[in-house]
Specification:
The structure holds two protein chains of two kinds. By secondary structure, chain A is of the alpha+beta class. Chain A folds into two domains: about 1-55 and about 280-420, no CATH class; about 65-275, no CATH class. Chain A contains 14 helices and nine strands. Chain A has helices at about 1-20, 20-55, 90-95, 130-135, 150-155, 165-170, 220-225, 245-260, 275-320, 320-330, 335-370, 375-380, 385-410, 415-420; strands at about 65, 100-115, 120-130, 160, 185-190, 190-200, 215-220, 235-240, 270-275. By secondary structure, chain B is an alpha/beta fold. Chain B has one domain (about 35-40, about 75-240): P-loop containing nucleotide triphosphate hydrolases (Rossmann fold, 3-Layer(aba) Sandwich), CATH 3.40.50. Helices cover about 40% and strands about 25% of the residues of chain B. Chain B contains eight helices and ten strands. Chain B has a six-stranded mixed sheet, sandwiched between helices. In chain B, strands 2-1-4-5 form a four-stranded antiparallel sheet, covered by helices on one side. In chain B, helix 6 links the parallel strand 7 and strand 8 (about 195). The longest helix of chain B has 19 residues, at about 220-240. The termini of chain B are far apart. Classes of the chains: A alpha+beta, B alpha/beta. The interface of A and B includes residues 321, 333 and 335 of A.
Chain lengths: ~425, ~240
Amino acid sequence: MLSNARMIIRLFLRELKSQKLRMSLTIIAIIWGTLSITLLLAFGEGLKNQLDINRKGLGDGILIIWGGQTEKPYKGLPRGRQIRFRPDIIDYIREQIPEIEAAGGEFINWGRPISYNGKIVSEKVNGVLPEYEFMRSLYPDSGGRFINKLDLQNKRRVAFIGNELRDDLFGPPDSAGYVDPIGKTILINDIQFTVIGVMQKKLQMGMYSGPDWSTAFIPITTFQTMYTRRYLSNLVIKPRDINQTEYVKDRLYSILSTKYKFDPEDKRALSIWDVVEDAQVMRKVMIGMQVFFGIIGGLTLLVAGVGVANIMYVAVRERTAEIGVKMAMGAKRAHVMTQFMLEAILIAGIGGGTGLFLSFAIAGTLAAIPMESEAMQWLGKPTISIPIAIVTISVLSTIGLAAGYFPARRAASVNPVESLRYE
Amino acid sequence: MIKMSGIRKAYNTGRIKVEALKGVDLEIGAGEFVSIVGPSGSGKSTLMNIAGCLDVPSDGGYELDGESVEKLNMSQLADIRNKKIGFVFQAFNLLPYATAFENVELPLIFGKVATKKRQDRVVELLGRVGLQDRLGHKPAELSGGEMQRVAIARALANNPKLLLADEPTGNLDSQSGKAIIDLFEELWKSGTTILMITHDFNVAKRTNRVVYLRDGLVVTKAADIAQGIKSWKHDRQFDTA
């Protein structure tokens, strides 16, 4: 078999010489096909991962609930009632639905004057609970912290600020005259607050009341002492298990409808933004896109495969006499076919291998580029995952096999008598 | 070794049906050295192809080494060609990209001979035809006579009982041709049955039997043979003049 392999490589080299242009174009086509299928899929994967990251900027697997207006009369109560949540509803929900990991609510006040050292901006102030840190991905940069239970109990005047709000008030971290905001006093509505943390830079694709990066978060209790608000803007709930989201939604309808006396079938009484459901829809769109990309790449590869088959057909014609001699020596169908199949696979393998290598090189280079630019933040890093490699390699081998099979079958059906006369 | 009875072979070339063999009866015993002669188109090659199991007769019976072969399938015929028959062609038909060693190795690969045994056998065969120092040469690096020797070594690879040669000296100068026939004679003496097509009267003379073919039939009448050989000799003289 060793010398057989040597002969096949030698045949390939001879074919390379005699069909130089055709062979090089075909190999380039296979490289191109492999590159396009792998890179298109890799970009799709990168985009998908990036969307995941961006989505998690809002919070992973959370439900955001707003009170609505009833549409149906219920138990003698008219329709058109506003459903609004008081802060104590949060504890009630926690008690009633053990399947939730965390529940929270918030007050929002837009366009509040926030200042430091004479610099004034007008931004959003959110009164929140400590749970928001993980529910809404509000993680502090090193040196800082998020609002905690003690802040809440003592109604402390502390603020956790978004990273762009920090840039506006204190300057970006690497700029001249930048001061570390931690421990500094800022004014919100002319009331002194101590900055306890700055939000880590994050990508946030979904938002419901404005971006987190230019918000000042304060304890919900402190908020209540500053602004007279009775009703929460919205609730945020995180089910323990993502698969229980639907159940938790049903339970919410059920307990809130009892509490606020509205028809549990009245879909307008509450409005729920299910981030998970959104993500699943997005995922399907992305998978659809990847399939589409894959098909485009696959078609390119198919065209290249036709090129390989073409080379092999020419080779069969040129080697007719040789096939006849081998048959006279006792070569069977399988012997004759194997040679052409292996040669086609070798051509596909060289092109495919080069293509894969280039794909990894390109994906690696792109991944090494820092994610600073806006475009890259949305595009993500192209990622060649194992399924992508498997898809590419199987498409390649299928095409290589097919491109070898049909010419090989023709070779095996050569009539030895005719072919010996060929000379 | 060969037992043909009423062998017919017809070809369809377009609309015309050509009958190359019209009922050949031929028996060749084991250990014979037979030459087949006859004018172009007399059916020599067709007879050879059938004898070599490369082709099957349209009609008639063929027994090779006691085995009836006309009903065998492609794969079985391939086995017979591999094990029982060795072919030597006028144009040598060596694989141009393979070395002498690899060319001789080929039938052994098809015959599934184990690697070590195969390599020893190749060395032995090339030694036997006097090419022990040409193992790694490619056909382009060999002379015509040497190429034909490689081809003979290849034909002998699986130790066949029957050697079929289609004008083995046709592409060689008389010196090399003579050496090839010497080699054939040696093989014949060591027990191989040889069937050879030739145009060369001097070559035919050295075999122990001449079969004269004309118009798809074996000529048996003594007068016809004499007439044929006479005109043939005349042709040769005319050719070489």
